[in-house]
Amino acid sequence: MHQQKRQPELVEGNLPVFVFPTELIFYADDQSTHKQVLTLYNPYEFALKFKVLCTTPNKYVVVDAAGAVKPQCCMDIVIRHRDVRSCHYGVIDKFRLQVSEQSQRKALGRKEVVATLLPSAKEQQKEEEEKRIKEHLTESLFFEQSFQPENRTVSSGPSLLTVFLAVVCITALMLPTLGDVESLVPLYLHLSVNQKLVAAYILGLITMAIFRT
């Protein structure tokens, strides 16, 4: 005897609701945008009842504000803005879609969609462009400030190794030359002319490097 497979009981308010888009933008100067379409998707194995609520229902007309969506199907919900006035520019309204099983009254899930009326699409594009330029300038200043400490570190002066080599070369040039019998310096510290030329050459390179830093 086969037992009937029972569907697990769903917790109220935890069912994900799939709606697109999640934001509606109406433009006062473009009548084609005064009508928007919300698409409600039902990816589940059971039918869903839905209801559309609004924070300001007097400003909108919702076609099919309540209904049902078959399993693994979708449904378009048409929303019209009927109060296009300048006093509503920039005001954010909200729609809430509540879904439930056809056999139950409790809401299994909900999804909110924001709606905004703007004066013009061109003004919106201009504001977005100005915002993008401002963000770009801010980023440029950020990177410039980030690199300043590195520049100061590089130009902090000659390294200890450079100073040490310069001192060695100067000391070598001050030592007596081979054949200088009147010097009190031990003979093993006497340098040849070629050795002093090498020391002078290295000292010149070090001096140029110090001036460049």
Brief summary:
It is built from three helices and nine strands, in the order βββββββββααα. It is an alpha+beta fold. Strands 2-9-8-4-6 form a five-stranded mixed sheet, with no helix packed on it.
Write the layout of secondary structure elements.
Layout: E1 18-20, E2 23-27, E3 35-42, E4 48-54, E5 60-63, E6 66-69, E7 73-81, E8 92-101, E9 109-118, H1 121-154, H2 160-174, H3 193-212
Parallel strand pairs: 2-9
Antiparallel strand pairs: 1-3, 3-7, 4-6, 4-8, 5-7, 8-9
Helix pairs in contact: 2-3
Which features would summarize this protein structure in a list?
alpha+beta; Immunoglobulin-like; 5-stranded mixed β-sheet; 4-stranded antiparallel β-sheet; disordered N terminus; Motile sperm domain-containing protein 1; golgi apparatus; transmembrane helix; Ig-like_fold; endoplasmic reticulum
Please explain how this structure is put together.
The structure is a single chain. With 213 residues, the protein is of the alpha+beta class. It has three helices and nine strands; from the N terminus they run βββββββββααα. This is Motile sperm domain-containing protein 1.
Question: Mean pLDDT across all residues, rounded?
Answer: 81
CATH homologous superfamily annotation of the domain at 18-121: Immunoglobulins
What structural category characterises the helix and strand content?
A: alpha+beta
Give start-end ranges of low-pLDDT stretches. 1-6
- What is the strand tally? 9
- Please write the CATH class name of the domain at 18-121: Mainly Beta
- Strand order in the largest sheet: 2-9-8-4-6
The helix fraction, in percent, is 25-40%
How many helices does DSSP assign?
A: 3
The CATH architecture name of the domain at 18-121 reads Sandwich
Helix-strand topology string: EEEEEEEEEHHH
Strand content: 25-35%
Indicate the CATH topology of the domain at 18-121. Immunoglobulin-like
| Cα distance spanning the termini | 92 Å
- Note the main sheet: 5 strands, mixed
Radius of gyration: 40 Å
How would the global form be characterised? Answer: rod-shaped
